[in-house]
Amino acid sequence: MNNNPVTISPSTTIEEVRSIFNRTNYWSIYVVAASKPVGVITRNDLKNRLRSVSLSDQAEKIMSSSVYAINYNAKVEDAVSLLEQHRITSLAITNRGRLCGVVTSGDIRRRYHPVPSATLKNGVITYTLNVETAQSESSVTEEPDFSSTEEPDVSEIEEPESPPAEEEHEGGGGDLLAFLFALVVPLLILSFLSNIVSPYLLSQHSYMMFVFGNPKPVYFYDIDSSCNDYDSNIVSALTDLSGETGVKFIRLPSPLALIIGGTGYGCGEIAGSPSYAGEAESGRITGVAGPCILVLAWNKVRLVDTNEETILHETLHTMGFDHRPDPGSIMYPSQRGHPQVDADIIDFIKTNYVSNLFAYLNVLPLNLIYILGVTILLMWYM
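The structure assignment produced for this chain is given below.
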């Protein structure tokens, strides 16, 4: 083991920590208070967290308080077992709780030739220690000279399937973050592509307006408590529209659909417009979160009259259909007295909302993609 490891106090500045790593080959530095190890900082910790702190901040802001230690008179087999069990690369050596040295997996592997032998399984280095062979190469009474503090070298392990795990305080979170990053980023790209394609599709029909997230073959919606007495009216109208066009309407608990970019239905008078039978509102909220741009869309329908004609009229607004001057159209600004949807609107929806592959780019709720994507990108950035 290294009997004289470089240590720092919790109040050591991060700039000093960086300086130590720059001038040495140490992989980790232990943080000590009253001679007892209270934390550890690895090169990865410094690299990954440097952007979120100042160089003048104290080391305790980036250290991990998860310190694995072993008594100075423990057997080498015990040290190997701890290294493997906790997926770590170094151990603090203590005497009555006080730090007296550091031993790494590289120290053990280099000292005991040809043992301990190393194998890689599920991303974990497994050491098998042959004590008899080790003792035959050095005196049993001789204190092993653990002197290296370098990062473990696993290059001699044959054909590893995956890299060795990070130290214990990283907790495997990097692998999960990388997986989520790889999963969500393509969805973000698809969502941007959908918003390039959508205006083109909608422009092919007269009296269309661009509403963020259209067209798509599946719509999420919720109904708030103000519509308790008319809940069945809304569900029935959407079921009829689905039967005519092939578009699916999926109900979620309120206000989940509104939050993730679907449509929220509410009932009651419209402030400032008492003569309206209903109103559909759509919009986007754009913000900046760190290095990312966050775009959240919302669609809300307010119903004064809860007859099927009004429900379908306002729903078609959220799907991108604007008013028409034809008194016989369901999109005429005034009510006609029957809920029949125009034949050309039904055909257009079937062609461009259900049968067109580009419309499927919009199926996943965009708000959910953006919220997850930006969160993961920020975590990756930090």
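Interim note for the steering committee: The chain has two domains: 7-171, 176-381. Residues 184 and 372 are 7 Å apart (CA to CA).
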